[in-house]
Amino acid sequence: MKVKICGITDLQSALAAVQLGADAIGFVFAESKRKIDMKAAKEIAEKLPESVMKVGVFVNETKKRIEQIASFTGLSHIQLHGEETPEFCRSIGYPVIKAISVQTENELSNLQDYPSEFILLDRRKGKYNGGNGTSFKWQEIKTEELDGKKIILAGGLDSDNVLEAIKLIKPYMVDVSSGVETDGKKDVKKIEKFIEHAKGKITRGILK
């Protein structure tokens, strides 16, 4: 199971997450309490292994601005967390992760219209588009409607519920932000515990 640690704002947390086994690091460039500026993100991204996905999170941003930030920072993937259309996703010159806010009895069949290889399932929007620390009813998601897509599961995940979520959805990757924080800051011990649960022996058995 792959793991993305999102909302990274400092080098120490990023390096610790990667050392503990994180496969992707997320930088939020949209309005958020975890928003990071280009220079800080670049300084962190430059020190991460090439194999680690460097994901920039944007909400209803212009194509020009997205690609400007991506080029300067050294992003490998773009996460679109707003109301971006399939056509807009197709226009971006980077691999796109399209985030979808999930509701009860959510219909996912229209997501096949998106060219994105990755679809991120998150909780219905709160104050910010993502990173709100609330989950949704995973058992109601019909993953067969996302056949051919790599599912990234987000929304209220933490070390206590990630195994249940993986068992129900069997995603390509799990994405956590507030679930590995203490008092609004990334907590290395929580990151370690989350990654241990997400990548542990029980998880490998579930995914066989």
Description:
The chain is of the alpha/beta class. Helix content is 29%, strand content 21%. The protein has a single domain, classed as Aldolase class I (TIM Barrel, Alpha-Beta Barrel), CATH 3.20.20. The chain has helices at residues 11-20, 38-45, 63-73, 86-91, 162-169, 188-199, 201-206; strands at 2-5, 24-28, 53-58, 77-80, 96-102, 118-123, 150-153, 173-176, 181-182, 185-186. Helix 2 links the parallel strand 2 (24-28) and strand 3.
What's the structural blueprint in terms of helices and strands?
Blueprint: E1 2-5, H1 11-20, E2 24-28, H2 38-45, E3 53-58, H3 63-73, E4 77-80, H4 86-91, E5 96-102, E6 118-123, E7 150-153, H5 162-169, E8 173-176, E9 181-182, E10 185-186, H6 188-199, H7 201-206
Parallel strand pairs: 1-2, 1-8, 2-3, 3-4, 4-5, 5-6, 6-7, 7-8
Antiparallel strand pairs: 9-10
Helix pairs in contact: 1-6
Between the first and last Cα atoms, what is the distance in angstroms?
11 Å
Tally of separate domains = 1
Q: Strands across the major sheet, in which order?
A: 1-2-3-4-5-6-7-8
From the spread of the alpha carbons, the general shape counts as globular
**What portion of residues is helical?**
25-40%
Number of E strands: 10
Strand content: 15-25%
Q: Please give the count of helices.
A: 7
User: Which spans have pLDDT < 50 for at least 5 consecutive residues?
Assistant: 128-133
The biggest beta sheet is recorded as: 8 strands, parallel, barrel
